Every structure is written in structure tokens, then in C-alpha cells.
């Protein structure tokens, strides 16, 4: 498959490629990620279309299927982490003060819709690290109108309080180790960006009004036929095609239902936008 990144650009400030990882360690990490996890959990259903699965490695309960993120200043290893020696080695090597650690699998055709994280966690500075273990060129993050492919072999930093979404258009499954950590000297030392690999970022085009109107017309036709989920997905996916203003996809869905005089659905999507983007 050819790369989906045709016009490389610089990375947005809210994402950075940090430390390079030893190739031998990467092979061990990848092997563990593909052979050890089982019984993946689908959580945060409102945030996705059903293809995003997680398992916890460090949390406050020790249960790998406990995947609802919350503040956790003294996490304990889960039974899953105890079976993954290479992951233990990497976490110890990074030395950061971990709040939560998990594996996340994004299957082919899966989307995590535009959202902000940490909205309910406001008292302490925290950061998110991504370690891609298995990926492909059609799996990318979108934030600030730029799509970013997090390549294997690096520790990446993401500021998840900025609106962002993730997709894996064609597969195979993308698997990342995700570490939420508190601000400390170890994180400050780690947070020195290296130059990203060529082609990891691309600015999305600005949408023309005619393109948005066409998408809304298609979605409206689907909704009139009773295919509400397909209609909503048609508009949510615009976030991954165009440089959209924050929350614009949600506004288009609300406007579609308003035009159809489905006021309850319009109010529901107005409220959902507030929850997804932390405006509640």
C-alpha cells in the first residue's frame, strides 16, 4: 500500500516524536502485544464506531479489563502487565510517574471521533505518551487540521486536551502502548523532540462549502430512509478528510436534524458535542 501522506508538513505543537527506541526492544514489545493480550474491552462507546479496544497495564484496581481512565497517583500492575516483561522494561526505562498505562487496538475501518481528554481531570498537570507497536500508513491522528502518522520506533507525546480524533481506514489493526503520566523531571527530560520521520504529517485541505453541502445532502437522504447511523458517520468522517473548525462535524449533524424537524435528535447531538469537546 502506498503512503496516504502526499504533502508532508511540520508536526503540530500538540504532538511530538520523542525518544527513539532500540530495535531489539521494539521486536520484543511487538511480539508481546501480538501474543499476550486477550479479551480486549470495548469502552467509551460514544467516542467511537466500535473498533477501538483497550486493556489496562497499570491502574488502581489491578484488573486489566478496568479501562475507564481516572486519576491514579499510585497505580499497580495488572495481571496482563505481569506477563509482559519487555513492556515492564520500557516503562521502567522511561522513568515517568505513571497515572495509567494500557494497550489500545484500533481495527481496520475504526474511528475515534473528535474529542478532548482529561476534561474531568483538572487539578494536576498530566501528559500522554504513545508507543506505536503495530501500525500502517492509513492509521493516523488528526488535530488542528493536520493528520499525523505515529511511526513505530519512537515514543510520541500527545497533548490530548486539544481536539483530536484517530482513524485506521484500511488496516491491519493498529496497536499502541499508551502511558498517561504526571509532570515531573523525568517527563521534562523525555520531552525533547527529535525531527519526525519524513511523511508523518500532512495538512488537510480546507473544505469548500459545496463539498460540505454535498455531504449534508447525502447524510440527509440516509436519515430520511431511516439509516441514522450511516448519516451521522458520513458527517463525522469529514473531520478526517478536511481541516475543520472545532466541533464543525457535530454542528452539521445538529443542523441536519434541525432541518428534518427532529428536534430531540438535534438537542441530543448538541449535548454530545459539549461532552465530547469538554464544553459541558
UniProtKB/TrEMBL annotation:
InterPro entries: Asp/Arg/Pro-Hydrxlase, IPNS-like_sf
Chain ranges of the Aspartyl/asparaginy/proline hydroxylase domain: 38-182
Organism encoding this protein: Actinoplanes flavus
SUPFAM superfamilies: Clavaminate synthase-like
Protein name, UniProt field: Aspartyl/asparaginyl beta-hydroxylase domain-containing protein
Amino acid at each position: 500500500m502506498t503512503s496516504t501522506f502526499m504533502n508532508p508538513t511540520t508536526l503540530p505543537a500538540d504532538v511530538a516524536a520523542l525518544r527513539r527506541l532500540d530495535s531489539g526492544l521494539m521486536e520484543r514489545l511487538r511480539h508481546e502485544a501480538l501474543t499476550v493480550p486477550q479479551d480486549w474491552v470495548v469502552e467509551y462507546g460514544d467516542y467511537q464506531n466500535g473498533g477501538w479496544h483497550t486493556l489496562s497495564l497499570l491502574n488502581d484496581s489491578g484488573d486489566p479489563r478496568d479501562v475507564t481512565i481516572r486519576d491514579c497517583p499510585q497505580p499497580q500492575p495488572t495481571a496482563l502487565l505481569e506477563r509482559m516483561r519487555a513492556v515492564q522494561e520500557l516503562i521502567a526505562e522511561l522513568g515517568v510517574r505513571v497515572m495509567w498505562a494500557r494497550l489500545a487496538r484500533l481495527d481496520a475501518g475504526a474511528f475515534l471521533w473528535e474529542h478532548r481528554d482529561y476534561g474531568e481531570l483538572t487539578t494536576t498537570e498530566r501528559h500522554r505518551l504513545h508507543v506505536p507497536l503495530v501500525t500502517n500508513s492509513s492509521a493516523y491522528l488528526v488535530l488542528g487540521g493536520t493528520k499525523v502518522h505515529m511511526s513505530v520506533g519512537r515514543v510520541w507525546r500527545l497533548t490530548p486536551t486539544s481536539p483530536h480524533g484517530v482513524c485506521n481506514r484500511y488496516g491491519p489493526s493498529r496497536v499502541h502502548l499508551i502511558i498517561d503520566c504526571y509532570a515531573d523531571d523525568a517527563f521534562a527530560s523525555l520531552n525533547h523532540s527529535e525531527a519526525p520521520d519524513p511523511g508523518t504529517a500532512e495538512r488537510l485541505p480546507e473544505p469548500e462549502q459545496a463539498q460540505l453541502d454535498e455531504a449534508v445532502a447525502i447524510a440527509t437522504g440516509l436519515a430520511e430512509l431511516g439509516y441514522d447511523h450511516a448519516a451521522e458517520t458520513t458527517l463525522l468522517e469529514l473531520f478526517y478528510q478536511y481541516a475543520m473548525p472545532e466541533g464543525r462535524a457535530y454542528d452539521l449533524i445538529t443542523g441536519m436534524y434541525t432541518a428534518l424537524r427532529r428536534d430531540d435528535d438535534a438537542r441530543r447531538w448538541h449535548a454530545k458535542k459539549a461532552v465530547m469537546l469538554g464544553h459541558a
